[in-house]
Amino acid sequence: MITYEFLQNYWWFIISLLGGLLVFLLFVQGGQSMLHSLGRTEDEKKLLVNALGRKWEYTFTTLVTFGGAFFASFPLFYSTSFGGAYWVWMIILFCFVLQAVSYEFQSKPGNIFGKGTYRAFLFINGVLGTFLLGAAVATFFTGSEFTVNKGNIVGLGDAGPVISQWQNPLHGIEALGDARNWFLGLAVLFLARTLASLFFVNRLNHDILVDRSRKFTLYNGVPFVVFFLAFLIWTLVADGYAVNPETKVVFLEPAKYLHNFLDMPLVLIVFLLGVVGVLYGIFATVFRPEYNKGIWFAGVGTVLTVTMLFLVAGYNHTAYYPSSIDLQSSLTVQNSSSSEFTLGVMSIVSLLVPFVLAYIFYAWRALEKKSLGLDDLQADEHSY
Length: 384
Hints:
The protein is mainly alpha-helical. It has 16 helices and six strands. It starts with a helix and ends in a 5-residue tail after the last helix.
């Protein structure tokens, strides 16, 4: 029999998987951040833009799906975070709007701003969008400054019908005051740039750009590993936000996230396999001159690693969105989810997800039958 608890855990897994897919697809943003450093001539920049332009909608769609699924399955998180830390989320969404506008209008007739302006917008999206997404996810482990009072839903609290209240006037920007959030933000940024370099090696029919991309794989892979290890080690040894399974009281537990890995050995094994996949993709591409499949190992590894990190943040009696100023306001998979009926109906719809993923894979393969070169752009009426 499918229980309410099973549905809650099932939807946290779906959210975690979507988060992993989103981080992988951020290679588009990573490539945008390197348009002027990796591309030296106008032809090279145009080739890079068009290689990325055929993929940007995947990232945008996954971001919207991730947000929509979070809203439907865990509405209290959505109202607390998006309604409280709105400056961070507004900046992130604005960055992605800049991306959509830039791809669609940079080559339109009558463009009065010039390609340079729109490519600057792509650079902003590539750097700021990835960094802030990473910093926002880091707060799942470091905590945020909010309070929750469900009694307010019927107007019993001092704030009337307002359930969640943000307790810092910076409304999310204060997260940048925590070094651990910076570590994960920078790790996501350099991971996106690393994945983009691997993508270019695999996708482009341009010897100069491919050779340069191999070097950029190393240049970005090293700082990614450093920042990710700094975040991971700090998180494993730091206090975590545990939940008493009987009383539902939230308390600080030393090395909680390390305990989560040890208590869930399957999650630990998949996490380590993901890390190995990312590292293999990077090193094989850097040290094997003819190898160009690194994006697939690193891409799958990224999805597995990020998915397992989300599971560690929410499973095993853990508050996935902790309040650093009022522990009992922290959000858990159990106290922030939709009703059993809603989750049940959504679970039926979610059975279509594998078919959607299969279609995306088919469409991707259909568009990528051969490497992209400058000659292909001249024959393409819809080039960016």
